[in-house]
Specification:
The complex is a heterotrimer. By secondary structure, chain A is mostly helical. In chain A, 64% of the residues lie in helices and 5% in strands. Chain A has a two-stranded antiparallel ribbon with strand order 1-2. In chain B, α1 runs antiparallel to α2 (102-134). The chains are: A mainly alpha, B alpha+beta, C mainly alpha.
Chain lengths: 127, 139, 116
């Protein structure tokens, strides 16, 4: 019973997104730290992850969602910004950082709401 | 030790590196006109050499980190300026000026500042995100 | 029997009609969900088995939470949100178990008060 309680697809998807967001935070920090390192290629979560997560959510398949594994890799779509091959564009990175931060806010609020509802159902009050 | 703020190891290294760079630039600018140093020679421009080292990130992958490999003297030749009244002038009246180009130094300083501020923003952002995560479940 | 009111919405989602209350031989079938990890109980399986399973699951959640937090404190490969969420899940599971225990106690006392 307990396992089923925490096995809802939406809840699992929010947890996976948080995993990806944490990885993205690392990647963006590394990109900005290496802003001027010659030849550095920008890192990001693999673009396939989002597509896989969307598909799994559309299927409503909890096991598929739980089995997803976001990874950091070199961004295949980034182009060289400076002659030494560095692909980090600072404005873009700062934008991504802000987007990531907002996504973090949203997912944490989603999960908090889930817990709030579970508590309501169990105890009849919010505490 | 708890690694709560993820991803800031490379940021801390970059902040260090950019600070060093700013210090070196400040020294270059301050000595742009020093024709006679403690060793009797004009001031030689210093430059910071960066290198990229690999550090272990949290999920086991290697993340490149910026660090200072060393501070080297710029071997560009001194500029010779005709100034016969100068006590440092040689027999032809030429004075060797430090090989510091103020415009280059200012441009360098701006980009070092930019990188420094950006990395600082990363740390602030990480902290804000961690605080949000810590408030999961509390309403 | 007084239906367990605050557990009602939860039990409804598992296919138990409120008002029937909990009887020792009531089959408890978790709602059909693709990929649900809890095994479906065969009809007629005892209530004590269900309780035993729940206690085991709550315990495993507590153990997972403790391990995750220890891992985080030791500087391991765990991120902050995983530790926080593991702790919350353990808390909610424990609360569920405590509420079930409370309601069972109430029901038992109600039963004992019945005139024979």
């Amino acid at each position: 019973m307990i396992d089923a309680l925490f096995n809802q697809p939406d809840y699992l998807a929010a947890k996976k997104q948080l995993d990806a967001i944490a990885l993205r935070e690392d990647a963006i920090a590394s990109n900005i730290a290496n802003l001027e390192t010659p030849g550095y290629k920008r890192l990001d979560v693999t673009p396939e992850f989002n597509a896989q997560l969307q598909r799994a959510c559309a299927d409503g398949n909890s096991q598929e969602i739980a089995g997803l594994n976001p990874q950091i890799a070199v961004d295949p779509n980034a182009t060289a910004v400076s002659p030494d091959g560095n692909t980090v564009d600072l404005d873009n990175e700062l934008l991504e950082m802000n987007k990531n931060s907002l996504a973090n806010t949203m997912e944490t609020q989603l999960i908090t709401t889930d817990f709030y509802r579970m508590r309501m159902a169990i105890t009849g009050n919010a505490g | 030790m708890i690694d709560i703020l993820s991803g800031v190891q490379s940021t801390a290294a970059a902040l260090d590196a950019e600070r060093t760079r700013l210090d070196v630039i400040a020294e270059n600018i301050a000595n742009a006109n020093t024709t006679h140093g403690p060793d009797g020679k004009p001031y030689q421009r210093q430059m910071v050499v960066f290198e990229s080292a690999l550090k272990q990130a949290m999920n086991g992958s290697q993340i490149p980190t910026l660090q200072v490999a060393g501070i080297e003297k710029d071997t560009k030749p001194f500029e010779m300026v005709y100034e016969p009244g100068n006590p440092d002038a040689n027999s032809q009246g030429m004075v060797a000026m430090p090989n510091v180009n103020i415009h280059e130094e200012m441009a360098d300083m701006i980009s070092a500042e930019r990188a420094f501020e950006a990395n600082l923003a990363v740390v602030k952002n990480s902290r804000a995100m961690a605080l949000q995560v810590l408030s999961i479940g509390k309403h | 029997m007084i239906p367990i009111s605050s557990i009602q919405p939860l039990m409804q989602s598992y296919g138990v009609t409120p008002g029937e209350g909990i009887a020792p031989s009531l089959p408890v079938t978790p709602a059909e969900q693709p990929g649900a990890l809890a095994p479906a109980q065969p009809p007629g399986d005892s209530f004590s088995t269900m309780l035993g399973n729940m206690i085991a699951e709550v315990n495993s959640k507590q153990v997972t939470a403790a391990n995750t937090v220890n891992n985080l404190q030791g500087g391991g490969n765990v991120s902050l949100h995983q530790a926080v969420i593991a702790m919350e899940e353990a808390n909610v599971s424990f609360q569920l178990m405590v509420e079930v225990r409370n309601k069972l106690l109430d029901s038992y006392q109600e039963l004992m008060r019945m005139q024979v």
